[in-house]
């Protein structure tokens, strides 16, 4: 299932809901991506697409300095899953792909 495109994400964290925009692109055989949110842009690392499941890692500095690990399932133009920051409880992630 293709993941390329622009996704509007919502992450339900213990400190409140955080909105982010994630962009996935295919460059040759590799998937690349960036996330925009909380006034910063960060590169997505270790992106893996396995069927309808996508995982990636990213580091953020706002609102806290955290290393995040995402695991989501694609359902057409929506996704849902979790984001984990180290030993903290997983946060629920939902998202919608923007029309092309």
Provide a descriptive summary of the structure in words.
This protein is mainly β and 100 residues long. The protein has one domain (5-97): Quinohemoprotein amine dehydrogenase alpha subunit, domain 2 (Lipocalin). 0% of the residues lie in helices and 72% in strands. The protein contains no helices and nine strands. The protein has a nine-stranded antiparallel sheet with strand order 4-3-2-1-9-8-7-6-5, with no helix packed on it. The two termini are 16 Å apart. The model has no long low-confidence stretch (mean pLDDT 94).
Class computed from helices, strands and strand pairing: mainly beta
Shape: globular
Secondary-structure arrangement, i.e. CATH architecture:
Beta Barrel
Terminus-to-terminus distance: 16 Å
CATH class: Mainly Beta
The CATH homologous superfamily is named: Quinohemoprotein amine dehydrogenase alpha subunit, domain 2
Can you summarize the main beta sheet? 9 strands, antiparallel
Helix content: under 10%
Domain count, please report it. 1
Secondary-structure element pattern, one letter each: EEEEEEEEE
Strand content: over 45%
| DSSP strand count | 9
Unreliable residue stretches: none
Give the radius of gyration. Answer: 13 Å
CATH topology: Lipocalin
| Side-by-side strand order of the widest sheet | 4-3-2-1-9-8-7-6-5
Integer average pLDDT = 94
